[in-house]
Amino acid sequence: MLCPQCSNNQKRSEGMQCGSCHYGFLLDPKERPYLSDRRFLHFVGKVSEDGERWFTAHQLHGLLQHHDMGWAAAVRRAGSNRRRVPRPPEETVATVARWVAHGRPIRGLIDRPALGVPAPNWPEPDLYDYGAENVLVVDQPLLVDVLVRNGVHARARTAIIDASGYPSGVTRRVADLIAHRPDLRIFLLHSSADGAAAPLEAYARSVLGASANPVIDLGLSHHVSRELRFLRWAKHTVVPADVLSHKWLTTGVESAIAAGVSLVGLARGGGPSFSDDDFG
Ligand SMILES: [Zn+2]
Which pLDDT tens digit goes with each residue over 100-157? Predict the structure, then answer.
């Protein structure tokens, strides 16, 4: 185990405290999810751009799995039959929670919905007052937070809510807006589970009153792993939408909304001007 603090190379048998600088190792690389502290911190730094942008544990999971996939392919090319089974996102969520519970804050991490109350850091508070041009309904509150905190709502001029009515202030304004705008486009973003779009559309139609509005499903479709290269590890498994890389979750979603197509449609059309496995 390489010490993240002083780079001392310590054997696991020498204990969980660095013999050189006394750093306390938290993750045991011999236990699930087989991550060392140093590797964990490396990927946290990568997904958050060293704490400069917001991310969820699911995004970290996507990055770890994508990286493991490349590693497994290299092992197979070298003649081994060893295959990696995709790990469940909950495993990474639990590792992140454990890290934070041990008093080790992670810059940029979104681990609880925080847009419910008006906060001084609420970006672009006036967007919904002068009229959003689109609505995006998602299937979990943290997805709202990661999109809004990374500015997607402002750049795409889109009100973003989840199908439980979060954040409530925005949801009320969206319902008012829809009442006056039967042409307003409603987009959906959700996990790759079969049928995940249906309850979101039902929510928009019945609760938000969007009976006549056009509804466009961004995905994730259940075959998304065949279309987006960095999600190839997700074959045969259901993944939440925020396993997408930062660029797909921001520029990708914004471009899909502008073009009125799904993320897979965007990828097939050449996608935005970035490589689909680019996590930068
Ligand atoms: Zn050390």
Answer: 999 999 999 999 998 866 555 555 455 555 568 999 999 999 999 999 999 999 999 9
Helix (H, G, I), strand (E, B) or coil at 136: strand
Residue where the block lists tokens 């002068």:
130
**C-alpha of 35 from chain center:** 20
Query: If you measure from the C-alpha of residue 166 to the centroid of ligand 1, how many angstroms do you get, rounded to a whole number?
Result: 43
Residue whose token pair is 């942008």: 53
Name the DSSP class of 9: B
Ligand 1 (ion): residues with CB under 5 Å are: 3, 5-6, 8, 18, 20-21, 23
pTM of the model: 0.90
Q: Domain ranges in the chain?
A: 12-101, 134-278
- Tell how far the Cα of 273 is from the centroid of ligand 1, in angstroms: 42
State in Å: Cα 182 to ligand 1 middle: 61
Cα distance between residue 88 and residue 17, in whole Å: 29
